[in-house]
């Protein structure tokens, strides 16, 4: 079995590896992101909770005495966009629809999330939060764990959605439609 996987044509691996990456993303991060997004909504699809501002703009929210009405439209739009990104991007990745752009956007989201955790929430001052590479501890939240998240997403960004994806179905349909066209 392992020999067969190692020596299968590259196009077969290109279908299987992204599928595995999407499955691992779904198994480990889908509910994490959807739960985080739900904590940011307060009763309606455009009504943000105070927690949304506390999570996305911790220092700015503290500076206005935790009064969201003192923050501007920019803060509202960014927090709302971030909230919906936590719903939409994971869904696109799991079903494999526009997976490459979704993976790239999710990598960007993770970078911003990590910078907010480090500088906005003060994680940079805590070695256990930041973590370190090439040490004996694999559990640093930012450098260790999120590196694996980005690795899986990079595989999808480079290889596409792989097998059992909407992108694959659409590509097959487009290829079939191209063959049926008269010359």
Automatic annotation (TrEMBL):
InterPro entries: DoxX. It is found in: Membrane. Keywords: Membrane, Transmembrane, Transmembrane helix. Pfam families: DoxX. It comes from Roseivivax halotolerans. It is a multi-pass membrane protein. The keyword Membrane applies. It comes from the Bacteria. The chain crosses the membrane at residues 15-34, 87-112, 147-166. This is Putative oxidoreductase. GO terms for cellular component: membrane.
């Amino acid at each position: 079995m392992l020999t067969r996987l190692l020596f299968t044509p590259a196009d077969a691996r290109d279908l299987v590896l992204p599928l595995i990456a999407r499955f691992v993303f779904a198994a480990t991060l889908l509910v994490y992101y959807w739960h985080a997004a739900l904590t940011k909504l307060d009763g309606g699809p455009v009504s943000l909770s105070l927690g949304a501002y506390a999570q996305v703009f911790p220092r700015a929210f503290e500076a206005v005495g935790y009064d969201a009405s003192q923050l501007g439209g920019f803060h509202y739009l960014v927090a709302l966009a971030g909230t919906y990104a936590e719903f939409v991007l994971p869904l696109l990745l799991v079903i494999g629809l526009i997976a490459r752009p979704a993976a790239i956007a999710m990598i960007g989201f993770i970078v911003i999330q990590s910078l907010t955790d480090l500088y906005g929430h003060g994680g940079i001052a805590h070695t256990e939060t930041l973590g370190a590479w090439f040490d004996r501890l694999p559990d640093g939240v930012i450098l260790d764990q999120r590196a694996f998240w980005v690795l899986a997403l990079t595989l999808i960004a480079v290889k596409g959605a792989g097998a059992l994806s909407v992108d694959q179905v659409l590509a097959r349909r487009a290829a079939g439609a191209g063959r049926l066209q008269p010359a």
